[in-house]
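To: structure desk
From: M.T.
Subject: fold request, one chain
Message: Could you run this one when you get a chance? Sequence is below, nothing fancy, just the single chain.
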Amino acid sequence: MRFLVWRLKHISDNNFSLIIAGIVGLFAGLAAVTLKTSVHAIQNLLQRNLDITGVNYLYLGYPLIGILLTVVVAQYITREGLGHGITQILYSISRNSSIIRRTKMYSRMVTSAITVGFGGSVGLEAPIVVTGSAIGSNLARLVHLDYKKRTLLIGCGSAGAVSAIFNSPIAGVIFAIEVILTDVTINKFIPILLASVCGQLVALVLLGEDILFSFKLVDGFAATDTPYYIILGIICGGASLYFTRLMYRIEGNISRLKNKYGKAFIGGISLAIIVLIFPPIYGEGYDTIKLLLSGQSEAVFERSFFYYFADSELALIAFLTLIILAKPVASALTIGSGGSGGIFAPSLFMGGLTGFVLALTLNIIFPEASISLRNFTLVGMCGVMSGVLHAPLTAIFLIAEITSGYVLFVPLMLVSAISFTTISYFEKHSLYTKKLIETGDLIPYDKDRIVLSLIELNKIVEKDLLTIKPDETLEDLVHVVQKSKRNIFPVVNEEGALEGIVTLDMIREIMFDQNNRENVVIRAIMQKPPAEVAPREKMQSVMNKFEVTQAWNLPVIDDGKYIGFISKSRIFNAYRKKLIRQTKE
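Reply: Done. Structure tokens follow.
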């Protein structure tokens, strides 16, 4: 508290934001280095065991053990659900005031290290983004920053994490802006930039050149290859669509299994069988991409049942095509069955193989074309990542930075744009946002609906309306009217269920007639409400009901029981307060 008081006196809000952003970037970079080192240590240990024993069938055990261990750790140690980490970050920003659980500052590092280290077919990028974002959120809470500053530091954490793990500060900044944050002004851009630089500096100091993935360009860009790059863009868009829909469908089917260990066992065994048949699917897959880029394509057959076909280009095309088709299945099984990881690396892996296969096929069909296999592999990575993540700028700058140059900038832009346009025609939202938007937990690019979604219905329900029973008379209602300050009277039976409503306007002409007051039963004059509202209903749905019914008040019913009324004027008042608060922040 003393520090906070001192800070308010001596450091301006903008300068303090820059300092905290730098600290978040440093910690995110340190977390990225720690995770990367841990995973590769586990992988090297297991790989050494494979080299010593020469037993390929260990591939059947490693992924299963990894997923089962991850489920145990998640259930008994970290005590949290897994799934797509970036989706959970977006949910926290949209529905939980940018508050992320403290345990996420380390839990995803532990679970993803186990999953990916033991061969889970996912990536490390999403878990480290979750870690960096959690660091930003919790550090903001520690120094009592408001919602907007917390959100900004979540973006800073994600930028520092991506920057550190790929040694790509520009891609880190753009990822934070394009995927995590939706409303960025220049005063937000500078802290994100600073965090990204700090994250990269930590990685450079601790790792040097030993980063997750890098490649020095060998071949230049030939403008005559543009038609082939256009074809690559369209194919990458199709591959992105295939990846997205298959992931979504398989994860949905697996989620129907309620037993966690049964789910982990089925998913782990299925994944292990795929890895046994197609060893390049084991882990993140960056080693396979490096082999293709270095001209050692025959090495991808190692430890597979198809090693005897290593000298055939047609066999290589068929083998890699089958891997492309199997990769989304393997990734979905890993995440859906309880593993921890992201789709960042799988999309890059699938894109690299797609670009290589297309280039090799075109070179066989048109030998005179002499298409660069390396360039198409790199640009394909950009194309599929752009489509799957719905983040074309992040994909462009990431590949440009990990190749240490902008020689391929034109084909990267072209393929990224075509791929993104292609998948956007069929899928409007990415895997990260699709489910959230379907459930109404994320409202992109609509500030009015965003503010409306922040209003909690159960906090504005009016419960001061006096009720009347359906078998009572108008005389009884007159006594209730004398005590009430409202002009609506819910008709509630003995079980607490709402049977109808009576308004003051409905009884005004007969309430002074003594004969009517004694003989008229409430059941005879009540009316059914035009619509009902559930206490946990989305506010947008509630407003739609008001719009359709043209009513100003609607009853709130919970499991058949009357709770109270919600009024349009109360919603407008709450909306105004939320809007003023957001503007001030």
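Reply (cont.): The chain has a mean pLDDT of 84. Let me know if you need anything else for the meeting.
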